[in-house]
Amino acid sequence: MSFTSLELRSLVTPDGELRLTLEDVPVGDPGPDEVILRVDAAPINPSDLGTLLGPADVTTFTADASSGRPVATAKIPPQAAAFAAPRIGKSLAMGNEGAGEVIAAGENARHLIGKVVGALGGSMFTRYRKVNADDVLAFPEGVTAKQGAAAFVNPLTALGMLSTMRLEGHSALVHTAAASNLGQMLNKLCLADGVELVNIVRSQDQAAILQAIGAKHILNSTDPDFHEQLIAAVSETGATLAFDAIGGGPLAGQILGAMEAALVAKTPPTTPYGSPVHKQVYVYGRLDRSPSVLPSSPGMAWGIGGWLLFYHLKRIGRAEELKLRQRVANEITTTFASPYTREITMTEALDPAVIRAYQRKATGEKFLLLPSQD
Amino acid sequence: MSFTSLELRSLVTPDGELRLTLEDVPVGDPGPDEVILRVDAAPINPSDLGTLLGPADVTTFTADASSGRPVATAKIPPQAAAFAAPRIGKSLAMGNEGAGEVIAAGENARHLIGKVVGALGGSMFTRYRKVNADDVLAFPEGVTAKQGAAAFVNPLTALGMLSTMRLEGHSALVHTAAASNLGQMLNKLCLADGVELVNIVRSQDQAAILQAIGAKHILNSTDPDFHEQLIAAVSETGATLAFDAIGGGPLAGQILGAMEAALVAKTPPTTPYGSPVHKQVYVYGRLDRSPSVLPSSPGMAWGIGGWLLFYHLKRIGRAEELKLRQRVANEITTTFASPYTREITMTEALDPAVIRAYQRKATGEKFLLLPSQD
């Protein structure tokens, strides 16, 4: 029994176009320690869009079904040509994570046949995917592929933030872009674990999303007294660690400054160097690609730096990672449940109107791809 | 035998003036584990000037000797009043470090009598100083107080930078404001230890200072091709750690960007997250108090943060600190020698023209106070 998959591919052509297609790809037989998964559901994460749409101007997408299969083509603007050049002629697969039923397995993995499992590792926007049995996450009985589709990227990121907090000796958190799918998950996790979380959002609508799920500390950075609210919230919670999805602009520096102000007000320093308590902001996203601006005020015990889930998992080691994964499997329908606003087939994923919708990355909107339908 | 010291003091008055005076201060007898030091020499470090001159407008200093002792008085500008307010009415001592002969000692420290020792710990701009015997650094026979005056702040900072480099797994360094007294010392130390050092300066005069002491990599940040030179130098040396005395402006971010560019050119990344090698800039000074501006380009494995000698010494622990101190004592006339451009008495230190001279903090200029003369 050998499988051929239908796979979503993204190609940059030599004449400056980006082309999305559905390709036949041989999957081959499973080796002794491998399984073949029918991918029933895969979330379209912001981290997938870079490969999927990359340098394309999404307003220019057009559809063509003359070959019998859907093809979507967009123009690459001249200013993105250099960025796109290394990809020319390479048909790229994508999809960080997904879930589905195990439909074939090698001799050491037969116990997984018929089970619904999740998998991480790229190329999940495909109908059939061969993976190592060690790498799949088996869900408890009754969990569906749609429920388990997003068991890695956001859940492990939220758990990784808490594990960073504990490793580095902090006791409470600040989170920006806090109404995101990840932010809602982090909020549920912090409530479950009794960790104080200061949620920073940019609109009243986003604040309402967090209010509805019981968030305790919600600040709107567009409020005129945001800076005073921020000092009060970090003082009350004792937060000295922040995770920032925005990256550019003044916010990361404002958070460091507010932490220092709160610490200095509680314990006036005995040296000219400010509070000796370390204050840290980790930048894990770049919603704003403009430069970051840091004030000169956070004392001498401060840091700001990049944070990436894969680096963090390497730091904590495989045994610790497996504990985090098992917690995700156990709580996939509660703490780590992901709501979707729309389910789409692979054919729909190549529809220009649908592409523009999932490309928006609007807060609260999340698309689930169903690779084995249509 | 009980001593009274003559001590340099800085006072902010309720009517908005800063006043420098010489005060009689009782020193008392040494306890069993204490020694009394005649402070023969103490450097005026940039870190002393904050307390010494603080919020004063140095152009307004006037001298008054009508009391029989010199007094220097300056106005505090209105915009500095809030900063100066906590100091009103408090007569502050200062002077981070100094050296001199032990002239009295408690029963457990008599072996130190007659020896030239260095001491750290504040209030060294004084004629006699009582300190714990454990805290002094005894120099080899023949070292003078002038040679040993600056055995802590700059030498331990330079050694602390190298110990940070080794602790955090880097193998070469970048240093800004590199022609400073500290920068010259770091350069000598790196040459002695075989560590590659990229020296960044801001003028041809500063470059010449470093050339004269054998620096290998010297970059002038005002050169039009500075960014290209920087990428080439960090590529050649493999530097992934920088110590920055400037703090504000674009330089720290430029260094991170150049490190990333050099790493990516050597090993093209296999993920969209840039090079996985960690790049770090520590800000240990704030010559530029404007905000720092960081680009969005250094990948995801980067950090920038404050660095303070005292926090670093706490991190490495007392045993490791004592090893660093012993190395300073052994090499105080070679690797850790400090050149001075001018020696001044306490009376001269209160002369308005002299105050303006040591306040300039010009590269290459360094003042040595001789508290036991005049």
Structure explained in plain terms:
- The structure is a homodimer of 374-residue chains.
- Chain A is of the alpha/beta class and 374 residues long.
- Chain A folds into 2 domains: 3-150 and 338-373, Alpha-Beta Complex (Quinone Oxidoreductase, Chain A, domain 1), CATH 3.90.180.10; 154-312, Rossmann fold (3-Layer(aba) Sandwich).
- Chain A contains 12 helices and 19 strands.
- In chain A, the strands form 4 sheets. In chain A, strands 3, 6, 7, 8, 9, 18 and 19 form a 7-stranded mixed β-sheet that branches.
- In chain A, a hairpin with a 6-residue loop joins strand 4 and strand 5.
- In chain A, helix 4 (153-167) crosses helix 5 and helix 7 packs across helix 8.
- The longest helix of chain A is centred in the C-terminal third of the chain and has 16 residues, at 251-266.
- The radius of gyration of chain A is 22 Å and the shape is globular.
- The mean pLDDT of chain A is 94.
